[in-house]
Write a structure and sequence with these properties.
Layout: E1 4-5, H1 8-28, E2 35-41, H2 45-61, E3 64-70, H3 76-88, E4 94-97, H4 107-113, H5 125-132, H6 143-154, E5 163-167, H7 174-183, E6 187-191, H8 198-203, E7 207-210, E8 228-231, E9 235-238, E10 246-249, H9 254-257, E11 263-264, H10 272-290
Parallel strand pairs: 1-11, 2-3, 2-4, 5-6, 5-7, 7-8, 8-11
Antiparallel strand pairs: 9-10
Helix pairs in contact: 1-10, 2-10, 6-7, 6-10
The structure holds NADPH dihydro-nicotinamide-adenine-dinucleotide phosphate (NDP).
NADPH dihydro-nicotinamide-adenine-dinucleotide phosphate binds near residues 167, 170, 173 and 214.
């Protein structure tokens, strides 16, 4: 079997076009132009790149981006104070605090300070708590895991009753991805660095989400024939044939796994583009919710 390749770039593009149309409709009908505030603390180069990409995507979707930068030595009070100001600003519908925060800052307290109506990243403890509870619905869910579910559905995976395995239990990807799968009525196993018999566990999965940050660790013979495989990992491996000296690979050995799976996401061009698309979608929804 050769797997269908799930084109995350294409799906993300469709979502972004949908958001842009919804924004223009809202504005044409006298509603507000959605605004996303980005808060960047410190000078982590990767964080700067991510925020730049998010702001560019906002502009393309007609969403106003309001950017704030604080120095790496900003106090807890200062960061939380900025978040509280943004909570009060009617032009701001979504607040994104770029993680990780510099060491010494209490990340959970900062996330808790965000108004849950503006928590477009879905990391507020109340939104995460609702995600974990039966019969409760979060207002927003973390964007990368939301993108994974969207891709699974687009690929035609049947989630209800499926055996799903999630590799990784981080707050931003693995755990919320597992909780979203439970909400879709899948039966979920969460694996991590202390899990025994990882390959065997993966082989039972109808749906496999890999989010461990280990280059091509999931081999083809870990994949159940006909499984749906979502590869969240982004890893650099040395490659002298590339001008920049490296290439990006996922957590799954793509060439092997695609011979076994029903459908699989590539890296790059799979989950990656979905994160920003889901963030734009959440921001537009936040603005819609704020309308009288
Ligand atoms: P973390 O490092 O926070 O978490 C990694 C998880 O994988 C942990 O739960 C860890 O277990 C587990 N793990 C690590 N090594 C192994 C192993 N050998 N066997 C089994 N489990 C293992 O990473 P993130 O969740 O933040 O990110 C995961 C990957 O996804 C990264 O490559 C990252 O770059 C990528 N990513 C991609 C995004 C996108 O496409 N937009 C967004 C975010 C992340 P334990 O808990 O026991 O330590």
């Amino acid at each position: 079997m050769t797997a269908a390749i799930i084109d995350g770039k294409q799906v993300a593009e469709e979502i972004r076009e949908g958001v842009a149309k919804a924004v223009e409709k809202m504005v044409a009908e006298g509603g507000p132009r959605p605004g996303l505030a980005t808060v960047l603390v410190g000078d982590n180069p990767a964080s700067h790149t991510y925020v730049r990409m998010k702001r560019k995507a906002c502009a393309e979707a007609g969403i106003e981006s309001i950017h704030h930068e604080l120095p790496a030595d900003a106090t807890q009070e200062k960061v939380e104070g900025l978040v509280r100001e943004l909570n009060k600003d009617p032009k701001v519908h979504g607040i994104l605090v770029q993680l990780p925060l510099p060491a010494g800052l209490d990340e959970e307290a900062v996330l808790r300070a965000i108004d849950i109506e503006k928590d477009v990243d879905g990391f507020h403890p109340i939104n995460i708590g609702r995600l974990a509870q039966k019969g409760r619905d979060p207002l927003f869910v973390p964007c990368t895991p939301a993108g994974c579910i969207k891709l699974l559905k687009k690929a035609g995976a049947k989630l209800e009753g499926a055996k799903a395995v999630v590799l990784g239990r981080s707050n931003i990807v693995g755990m919320p991805a597992a909780l979203l799968l439970v909400k879709e009525n899948a039966t979920v196993t969460i694996c991590h660095s202390r899990t025994k018999n990882l390959a065997e566990t993966c082989r039972e999965a109808d749906v496999l989400i890999a989010a461990i940050g280990r280059a091509e660790m999931v081999r083809g013979d870990w994949v159940k024939p006909g499984a749906y495989v979502i590869d969240v990992g982004i890893n650099r491996v040395d490659d002298d044939t590339k001008k920049r000296g490296y290439r990006l690979v996922g957590d799954v050995a793509f060439e092997e796994a695609k011979e076994v799976a029903a459908a699989i996401t590539p890296v790059p061009g799979g989950v990656g583009p979905m994160t920003i698309a889901m963030l734009l979608d959440a921001t537009q929804r936040a603005a819609q919710r704020a309308m009288p």
